[in-house]
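Students often ask why inverse folding is considered easier than folding. One informal answer: many sequences map to the same fold, so there is more than one right answer. In these notes we will look at a single instance of the problem. The structure comes first.
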């Protein structure tokens, strides 16, 4: 785990206006989805067996997170 956030919305890519950096790093082709994230916070990397994607963390894992200062 390297970050936690709130998933605020999910939109079709043709309905969003990505920044130059987002466009360079993401795939905004027609028919894809864009996750709109809020309250993104970096944490000290924490090993956790899982898969890519969004999950609600169990409380015992959440208690182990060490939040880092914004860069």
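Output (designed amino acids):
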């Amino acid at each position: 785990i390297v970050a936690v956030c709130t998933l605020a919305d999910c939109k079709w890519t043709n309905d969003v206006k990505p920044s130059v950096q987002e466009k360079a790093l993401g795939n905004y082709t027609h028919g894809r989805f864009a996750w709109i994230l809020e309250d993104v916070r970096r944490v000290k990397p924490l090993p956790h067996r899982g898969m890519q994607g969004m999950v609600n963390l169990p409380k015992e894992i959440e208690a182990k997170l060490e939040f880092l200062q914004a860069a």
